[in-house]
Amino acid sequence: MNNLLDILASGVHDAKNQLFLAESLIAAAEAQHGLSLAEARYAIEAASDRLTRTLAAYQVMRHSATPAITPVILEDLCDEVMLAQKLHLASREISLTVDCQVFDAWPLDRDLVTDMLNNAVQNAGRYALSTVKLSVATEDDWLYLVVEDDGPGFPSLPPEQGTGLMVAERLAALHVQHGRSGSLTLNNTSALGGARFELKLP
Fold it and tell me: Which CATH architecture has domain 70-201?
């Protein structure tokens, strides 16, 4: 597992270097030709930020560290995901709605959870027909962060265990409170008719 994580971390570093080069080329093109490539810059900055958070996840998993769990205002977290993903989804004519029913702070690792939700929303946007929904609620002292779409759903259940899913499941399980661990569930029970990503945290 650690060898796999080392390989992933090396790949992330290389990808960040390529993004830096791409941004430099864009800046040169803007200056030389009088272009405005703000959307391209935004995409590069968002990707770089995502990679930075991926490296943070790597550090937690590689060194068996404890997540940086602090009280987080869920509305603020949802707003951050909305800001990061709305433009990207709008370019594909996909709407993103947010339904946050939790108004108090909840203990979690903000960077890790935000990255998992951003990834879930991006994945949902690839298959959605028109709508992606992020909802947050509590039940029986558990926090549920759910991403749903109106696409065709997963072609097989359980979904293939890719590296991203494996990492997300482990990061969810690292959230431990009062002897209970977090979990990740993927299925086709979305109220919108497509796939459902459910992050459950204690």
Answer: 2-Layer Sandwich (3.30)
